Amino acid sequence: MPLSSDRPDCFHLPAVDAAAIRTGPDRLHLVPPDSVADASTIVASHARARAARGRKEATGCLVPIAGGLVLAVVAETLVRLASIHLSSGAAAAAVALSFVIGASVTAVIVPRTTSATPVPTPLPSVLVHPVVAAGAAADLPARDVVLASRAFDERDRAAADLEKARADAQLTDREREVPPGDRSTWFFRPEDLPGIERTAEDAERRAREVADRLDIVLEEEGGWDTTPDD
Questions:
Q1: What is the per-residue pLDDT for 223?
Q2: How many other CB atoms are there within 10 angstroms of residue 132's CB atom?
Q3: Is the entire prediction scored with pTM above 0.90?
Q4: Are 176 and 184 in contact (CB under 8 A)?
Q5: pLDDT score of 178 more than 80
Q6: Three-state secondary structure readout of the chain
Q7: Phi and psi at residue 33, in whole multiples of 5°?
Q8: Distance from C-alpha of 2 to C-alpha of 216, rounded to nearest angstrom
């Protein structure tokens, strides 16, 4: 029987909370072995963080509008007092301008104050790798679940690097040029490929060794092909 949320220290997050940490609601979480919290406490901490984010976003949207309305009301009062000197069109323009100014000023001030209020960080949990969740025994100790998940995560990262390195190796020097100031684009060099292949092979081997030692069943696990493309 595989790992599941039926186990007291395993749980799933609601979709909205899972999305906030860039994962999916189908991913199984594990209470860290050294944590004093339980699963329900960790789930509740995500809900509190979500509520705090919502309040912060609402403040950023509504307060500027409120500031504009307050200044517009003040302006309207002043315009009425001076209405004998202003036409109705000028009075309306003055009120509208006051609203815009009030909203703009408040929009500048509010982010500075709200950004100083930190959103609470949810309590940590361990993402169980899908291979481990599907193939490990239901009673596998938590520390072994963490160890195995870490090994397969490293395997996945090494495989992703290898896939990119192989693609980058097919590019010309001109295609690998990065515009000045662009920090989001990067490429592996062709000479990096042999080392990345060795890293991927080692990560695959370590993951399989961990799986064998912990009796994790690798159903339909063909591993990652680390042989060069023809």
A1: 45
A2: 29
A3: no
A4: no
A5: yes
A6: CCCCCCCCCEECCCHHHHHHCCCCCCCCEECCCCCCCCHHHHHHHHHHHHHHHHHHHHHHHHHHHHHHHHHHHHHHHHHHHCHHHCCHHHHHHHHHHHHHHHHHHHHHHHHHHHCCCCCCCCCCCEECCHHHHHHCCCCCCHHHHHHHHHHHHHHHHHHHHHHHHHHHHCCCCCCCCCCCCCCCCCCCCHHHHHHHHHHHHHHHHHHHHHHHHCCCCCCCCCCCCCCCCC
A7: -55, -30
A8: 10
Gap between the Cα atoms of 104 and 200, Å rounded: 53
Give per-residue pLDDT as tens, 145-168: 999 999 999 999 999 999 999 999
Could you give the CA distance from residue 35 to residue 52 in angstroms, rounded to a whole number?
Answer: 23
